[in-house]
Amino acid sequence: MKRSFLTSTVLTATGLSFTGALIAAAAAAQQTYDLGTIVLSSSLTPVELGRTGATVEVLEGDQVGKNDISVINRLDRLPGVSSTSDGGLGARGGIQIRGLPARYVGVRINGIDVADPASTQNQFNFGGYTSSGVQRIEVLKGSQSALYGSEAIAGVVNILTYVPEDLGFSGQANVEAGTYNTYSGALSVGYRSERGFVALSYGRVKTDGFSSQSFNTEDDGFEQTTIDLTAEYNVTAAFTIGAALHYRDSTLDIDRSRFSDDATGINYFTEKGARFFATLETGAITHTLSYSYFEVDRDDPGGFTTTFTGERQNVSYLGSAELSARAILNFGAEYTEEKFTSGASRGSEDDTAVNGELLFSPADNIDISAALRHDDDSSFGGQTTGRLAAVWRPIEDLAFRAVYGTGYRAPSLYERFGPYGVASLQPEESSSYELGVEKTFGAVGYVKATLFYTDIDDLIDYDPNSTACGNMFPGCYSQVPGTTTSKGIELSGEYALTSGLTLFGAYTYTDAKNDGARLERTPKHDVTLGLSNDFTDRFSGYVDLRHVADVVPSAFAPAGHKVGDYTLVGAGVSYDVTDDAALYLRVENLFDEDYETAGGYNQPGRAAYVGLRASF
């Protein structure tokens, strides 16, 4: 969980380039305050982490996958983030941000919106997503619809894959084997010249797994191939083109029904995405035009519904203008079309949006951003959202942040046009507030605290008594009474106790309720503590502990479920065989905790993995 204090230049995969104003502003700011990592997600154009009022967690390089094979397990350790899963690797899994479930979290991979348009709700399934080729993850918290539109009420996860940093050919590789007959490998290669780069990442994982459902012992295997390709080329000093391609194909064994011992099910999943962009600088204005496409195909040959297909296309324009040495105006427009097919059900809708954002620094130690967006949906009309964020640095290494934002979640295509859907559903609406303070100690460490509050109205949920969808039997999606509120505090920090020994930790208290009743599967208390140590120049290790307490199980959890408090301990060691290669051993769930995050679905027991990682 180490934090980077170095300025990152991994910006190209998003299709956004630095403007001259951004570079100048960054240089000026560095004279008085170490603003640190550049972030891509907290504004319409890249900004320094120290200059955004929003709360952003940044993972880079080894921080992403060094201690985990799956991305969801790494995100689970961040303050304000928790997860639920219906089994082991490959089984359906999602993250919650500040107590709000996955349907309120937007996810982008290299700028491509990867939420599943054919899912019950528009959301990304993290269950089988591994760290193969992933170079950087940003988790932006709070209502962000003013920047990202629908589904960004809780926040946004922005994922970037490998990009070469050095001129010429370079790359990295990883192979690993362990418990449950799990084997994985990843290879990323790239070439960078003075005018651009091309990068390819390939990943493969296969595991026999274990039984996802708690009432049988038949193993549920999983295998997956992942490919990501990114490229960028400076045609001239003012004109840049680029592309990103994403492919993931997987097969998962499933237990067909929780009401029988049928363990013969199998699911097939394929997702394909692409993004193309062009950036042109004309004087003080930078223009970026992009097109993206995403498609999901899910097959369940023995299921009640055998095929699910979702498709999304997006065309967007973004302009960035330097108004003065202290002000940048970002402005844009985009058009999005979504379609889905689920058995005999099908539907589509489109959305046109315009947005703007002002980045303003009234003083060297104050930064303010104001964003406004208007969406016009083909079905339910207009929706206007906004966000105001500010950061104040009264002295060196101390920052106070404040954010207010509004958001919305449009009803998914399945909620409107699926077998239990109601076409007249309207969007959910939200507002969120947060106040934060952060104290850094040079390169030694930091402490951070954030108070947060979010409320959501016009909730969409399944109502077993509704007849609005016209089915023979009751049970439909509908706008249900009540307001969802989530409030609490996030605490996190890291400190180098000695030159090699580092202590890190995080604690989140979340009080999440719907009309007074606790939200299901949301921990009230979530603690992570750990130590990492460099024993020698080549030998290092870590141990971490995660404790989750006070969780309310789903109303559908079976009798005898194990949803509740649990404690997980992980540990690992690594030895640098050469300057560019390391052998490692990792043990997860060291004390073999028997627990569930979703009622009736097993979680992994004690597991050990050995691997080799190298760069070249």
Can you put this structure into words, describing what you see?
- This protein is mainly beta.
- The chain has a single domain, classed as TonB-dependent receptor, beta-barrel domain (Maltoporin, Chain A, Beta Barrel), CATH 2.40.170.20.
- The protein is built from 5 helices and 34 strands.
- The strands form 5 sheets. It has a 22-stranded antiparallel barrel. Strands 3-8-9-6-7 form a 5-stranded mixed β-sheet. Strands 1-2 form a two-stranded antiparallel ribbon.
- The protein is globular.
- The two termini are 25 Å apart.
- The N terminus is likely disordered.
Distance between the termini: 25 Å
At the fourth CATH level, what is the homologous superfamily? TonB-dependent receptor, beta-barrel domain
* CATH top level label: Mainly Beta
Assign the structural class, choosing from mainly alpha, mainly beta, alpha/beta, alpha+beta, or little secondary structure: mainly beta
Residue share in helix = under 10%
Mean of the pLDDT scores? 91
Number of domains: 1
Descriptors:
616 residues, mainly beta, Maltoporin, Chain A, 22-stranded antiparallel β-barrel, five-stranded mixed beta sheet, 5 helices, disordered N terminus
Question: What's the short version?
Answer:
This protein is mainly beta and 616 residues long. It has 5 helices and 34 strands.
Set out the fold topology.
Elements: H1 20-30, E1 38-39, E2 47-48, E3 56-60, H2 62-65, H3 71-75, E4 81-85, E5 93-97, E6 105-109, E7 112-113, E8 134-141, H4 145-148, E9 155-161, E10 168-178, E11 182-193, E12 196-207, E13 222-234, E14 239-254, E15 265-282, E16 285-299, E17 307-324, E18 327-342, E19 345-363, E20 366-377, E21 381-395, E22 398-409, H5 413-417, E23 428-440, E24 445-457, E25 460-463, E26 476-479, E27 484-496, E28 501-514, E29 517-518, E30 525-534, E31 539-549, E32 566-578, E33 581-588, E34 607-615
Parallel strand pairs: 6-9
Antiparallel strand pairs: 1-2, 3-8, 4-5, 6-7, 8-9, 10-11, 10-34, 11-12, 12-13, 13-14, 14-15, 15-16, 16-17, 17-18, 18-19, 19-20, 20-21, 21-22, 22-23, 23-24, 24-27, 25-26, 27-28, 28-29, 28-30, 30-31, 31-32, 32-33, 33-34
